[in-house]
Recover the amino acids of this structure.
């Protein structure tokens, strides 16, 4: 039941990455374009206005502001406007300190396009920040092509931002689904099981292995539904459904604090705010959409 028309949170930024227009001359021209805009981040937190929109300014306004490497990062071109992202130093005074907000707390209030733009910026900066040295020879690398990748001048290796694939699955048994909770989650919160794909493993195998490891449940009939980029820091969440005949949960306490079966009626009631049987995953998560998709079909 792949649903290509459904827009997942952190997608649909509407950006043309302009991969063929990222020379130094092009970047300079884009920076000087009167229509250019830049997102500002501090420690991965985007600057937000009180109305919940991204606080975007023209890159010119950053003159004299202490910006961190890599700079500039060109996220892409949107409606003929070059969209940049800059990471600013904590001492900058251009924008009030409290405008920089943790994305997880504000994602639910942001519009789709701006959420995707901020997510792309956050993932790119996180990757550049954590990959300042060449993994081939250990020398310092330089950002290239407006932050699209980095280059090691010592050994001539290019390094590309990494995306980590994760499977997230709705395990179904008749009209019930299996949800779990991890330690530290808000009280009552349950969500779909998830896990990183290991080298040498398909999506289907990862889904079967993770479900078995976490809950002792054997699943079959793994189907892809939709996917979502997750910028904390840079995962690709691949949403799946799968089926089981098993009922008995054997909890792996190293992975989960609890796991339970929930009927479609219960999940529907929770989504309709008619029940507080559990706290549903937030709207900006793929788990929310997997569950919503399930109860609506
Ligand atoms: Zn190198």
């Amino acid at each position: 039941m792949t649903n290509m028309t459904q827009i997942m949170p952190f997608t649909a930024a509407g950006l043309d990455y302009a991969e063929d227009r990222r020379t130094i001359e092009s970047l300079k021209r884009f920076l000087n374009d009167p229509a250019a805009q830049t997102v500002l981040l501090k420690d991965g937190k985007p600057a937000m206005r009180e109305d919940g929109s991204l606080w975007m300014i023209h890159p010119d306004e950053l003159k004299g502001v202490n910006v961190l490497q890599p700079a500039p990062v060109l996220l892409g071109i949107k409606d003929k406007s070059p969209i940049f992202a800059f990471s600013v130093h904590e001492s900058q005074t251009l924008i009030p300190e409290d405008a920089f907000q943790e994305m997880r707390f504000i994602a639910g209030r942001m519009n789709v396009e701006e959420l995707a733009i901020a997510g792309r910026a956050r993932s790119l900066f996180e990757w550049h920040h954590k990959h300042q040295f060449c993994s081939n020879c250990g020398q310092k690398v330089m950002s290239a092509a407006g932050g699209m990748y980095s280059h090691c001048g010592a050994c001539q290796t290019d390094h590309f931002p990494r995306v980590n694939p994760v499977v997230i699955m709705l395990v179904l048994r008749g009209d019930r689904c299996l949800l779990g909770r991890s330690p530290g989650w808000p009280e009552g919160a349950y969500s779909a099981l998830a896990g990183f794909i290991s080298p040498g493993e398909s999506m289907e195998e990862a889904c079967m292995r993770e479900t078995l490891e976490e809950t002792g449940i054997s699943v079959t009939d793994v189907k892809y539904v939709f996917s979502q980029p997750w910028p904390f820091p840079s995962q690709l969440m691949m949403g799946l459904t799968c089926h089981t005949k098993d009922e008995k949960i054997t909890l792996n306490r190293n992975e989960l604090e609890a796991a339970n079966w929930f009927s479609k009626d219960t999940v529907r009631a929770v989504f309709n705010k008619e029940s507080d049987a559990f706290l549903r995953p937030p709207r900006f998560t793929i788990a929310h959409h997997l569950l919503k998709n399930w109860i609506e079909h």
Notes: The helical segments are 24-32, 103-106, 112-130, 203-215, 264-271, 286-295. The chain has six helices and 13 strands.
